[in-house]
Write a structure and sequence with these properties.
Number of strands of chain A: 10
Number of strands of chain B: 2
Radius of gyration of chain A: 21 Å
Distance between the termini of chain B: 44 Å
Structural class of chain A: alpha/beta
Mean pLDDT of chain A: 90
Strand order of the largest sheet of chain A: 6-7-8-3-9-10
Helix content of chain B: 55-70%
Radius of gyration of chain B: 22 Å
Mean pLDDT of chain B: 86
Number of helices of chain B: 11
Structural class of chain B: mainly alpha
Oligomer: heterodimer
Strand content of chain B: under 5%
Low-confidence stretches of chain A: none
Order of helices and strands of chain A: EEEHEEHEHHHEHEHEEHHHH
Largest sheet of chain A: 6 strands, mixed
Strand content of chain A: 15-25%
Number of domains of chain B: 2
Shape of chain A: globular
Helix content of chain A: 40-55%
Largest interface: A-B, 28 and 23 residues
Low-confidence stretches of chain B: none
Strand order of the largest sheet of chain B: 1-2
Number of helices of chain A: 11
Order of helices and strands of chain B: HHHHHEEHHHHHH
Bound molecules: adenosine-5'-triphosphate, magnesium ion
Chain lengths: ~290, ~260
């Protein structure tokens, strides 16, 4: 279940005056069942990169291997790849088109050659996973709220039962509650099914919370691909790329600058809490001595 | 894929053609199209082709890019050429089953093809070198006299410029929706005609919805900025003829004279 990229480069409108490099010489390999956060400034090439991973666009140069097989080799089954590497687009709710939610979610599985009954079962499973109840099955997708639409659209990809799930800014444009719900759903999926997940995001906070490793893109180049802790250590460099570490990392950085021996690479409030408590206890023990 | 459609797109380079007044380009394109029907001699077509090539060279738009735009109309070209080829009565050269090809048919088909190709290249050259805004500015000004007979020139020009502006947006949107549906296993390239037509539904429904949404948003944004039509509206950059524009007119006039002369060659 691993995706391996070798020297991926993508140029939009190559050979014209509007030629632009979107992705430059990117290489990486994913591990089984890991949660990867993909982060980068607007226009840094995140969407372009992930669309290459399931063969929707072909890299200008470079190779992509899925489970060791070159996906652009002669006779490779693209349809099967797209079933195994599920891609949820940015604002996926704009792809809903059917008369009711259930039929829309069935679209993917049916394209994969499932029978109507199998597809229906897959669709129901997926809708349950994203938390859309039975009373919505027969409703028009256009009557749902923004967050519900988003979840129905994600179910449309989940129904194909992908091994790797790639999501392009799944929480963009949602209110804080809708955002947490979506992110929690994805985290739960990850825990329950142990899929490999690549989640694109603008927000370091979101990524810090869930990701095992973080991929940082800047101007089409892969700058960091490491654990959140290691990446956040470079918060000053991140800032130069128009990104920022989570706010809590700054707070810890400030604390350290004031002479407290805290770890300044933590990315979540929970970790920071533990860190400060640890320091507190140490201090108490010292004063007790 | 769908992005290969270049008709109606703008291609930015820094050339004299780009800097010409849009009215010059509009008039020249019109005259060029008319000139194609003035001549009937090979010399005329060769000359028109040479003129076209010269303009392409000056515009610094890669020839390849222009030819790519032709791909979108290949079917149209094919149909009109076949009609002319097989359905023109006259002296028979050879036959394919019940279809016979005549000398006259061959001739008309060939001329037809050349005319159509020139026509498409000529008009896409105009849109490639002129931004939609300039184009509608030019149209509005050239047709301004129609205001006197109560034709809402400004409103028509505004609608046109919006429509032109929407072409690339909708192309991009279509591309995105197509990819999203392909990620769900949709297949647009195989199957018979019925299956292919049905495969379009997952693209068309979201596309229409988004087009309506965009139109509504745009209308609201225009109203919010107090847009109320053409009356009393002034331009930030009023169109004014320069020396190069007069030279261009002169060259076009010369070209026309030559084309008319070739009629009798
Ligand atoms: N269809 C296209 N044609 C030409 N250039 C494009 C196209 N799509 C993207 N680009 C360019 O490629 C670069 C990378 O775009 P991409 O959409 O991958 O960025 P992104 O990281 O996903 O940004 P965002 O966070 O805004 O979604 C940008 O500079 C963009 O202008
Ligand atoms: Mg993006």
């Amino acid at each position: 279940m691993s995706i391996k990229a070798e020297g991926l480069t993508y140029i939009y409108q190559a050979g014209t005056a509007m030629e632009s490099y979107a992705v430059r010489d990117i290489s990486f390999e994913t591990k089984d069942g890991e949660f990867i956060g993909l982060i980068g400034h607007t226009g840094s090439g995140k969407s372009t990169l992930i669309q290459q991973l399931n063969g929707l666009i072909k890299p200008t140069s470079g190779k992509i291997y899925y489970n060791g097989e070159d996906i652009h080799s002669e006779g490779y089954d693209m349809k099967r790849l797209r079933q195994r590497v599920g891609l949820v687009f940015q604002y996926p709710e704009y792809q809903l088109f059917e008369t009711d939610v259930l039929t829309d979610v069935k679209f993917g599985p049916k394209n994969m050659g499932m029978s109507d009954i199998e597809a229906e079962e897959a669709a129901k499973r997926a809708l349950k996973l994203v938390g859309i109840g039975e009373d919505f099955y027969k409703r028009s997708p256009f009557e749902l709220s923004g967050g519900q639409k988003r979840r129905a659209a994600i179910a449309g990809v989940l129904a194909m039962d992908p091994e790797v799930l790639i999501l392009d800014e799944p929480a963009a444009g949602l209110d804080p509650l809708g955002k947490t719900e979506i992110l929690e759903t994805i985290a739960r999926l990850h825990r329950e099914r142990n899929n490999t997940i690549i989640m694109v995001s603008h927000s370091m906070e979101d990524v810090a919370e869930y990701a095992d490793r973080i991929m940082v893109l800047d101007d089409g180049k892969l700058v960091y691909f490491d654990s959140p802790k290691e990446v956040f250590r470079h918060y000053e460099e991140l800032e130069k790329m128009g990104l920022s570490a989570p706010q809590i990392t700054y707070l810890m950085g400030d604390l350290k600058k004031r002479g407290l021996q805290v770890d300044d690479s933590v990315g979540t409030v929970a970790e920071a809490c533990r860190e400060i408590l640890r320091l507190w206890k140490e201090k108490e023990e010292k004063s007790a001595e | 894929m769908i992005r290969d459609i270049t008709i109606g797109q703008y291609y930015p380079t820094d050339s004299v053609i780009h800097r010409l007044d849009p009215r010059v380009k509009l008039a020249s394109t019109m005259l060029f199209l008319i000139s194609l029907f003035l001549t009937e001699s090979i010399v005329g077509y060769v000359f028109a082709g040479a003129a076209l090539l010269a303009v392409i060279r000056i515009s610094r738009i890669p020839f390849k890019y222009i030819v790519r735009g032709l791909k979108a109309v290949v079917i149209l070209l094919f149909i009109s050429v076949s009609f002319n080829l097989f359905l023109t009565p006259g002296e028979e050269i050879f036959r394919l089953g019940f279809l016979k090809v005549t000398r006259e048919g061959l001739r008309t088909a060939l001329y037809m093809a050349v005319r159509l190709i020139y026509l498409i290249i000529g008009s896409s050259l105009m849109t490639l070198t002129t931004t939609p805004n300039q184009l509608t500015d030019g149209l509005e000004k050239s047709l301004g006299f129609l205001n006197k007979v109560h034709v809402p020139v400004h409103e028509i020009a505004m609608m046109m410029s919006i429509a032109l502006r929407f072409i690339p947006i909708l192309i991009e949107e279509t591309d995105k929706i197509m990819k999203a549906q392909m990620a769900r296993g949709a297949d647009f390239d195989t199957g018979n005609l019925m299956q292919r037509a049905r495969a379009m539904v997952p693209i068309l429904v979201p596309l229409f919805i988004s087009a309506f949404r965009r139109a509504a948003d745009l209308a609201q944004a225009m109203e919010a900025r107090c847009y109320h039509g053409g009356a009393g509206r002034t331009k930030l950059k009023p169109l004014r003829y320069e020396r190069r524009d007069y030279i261009a007119y002169l060259l076009v006039a010369l070209y026309l004279v030559v084309m008319v002369v070739t009629r009798w060659l």
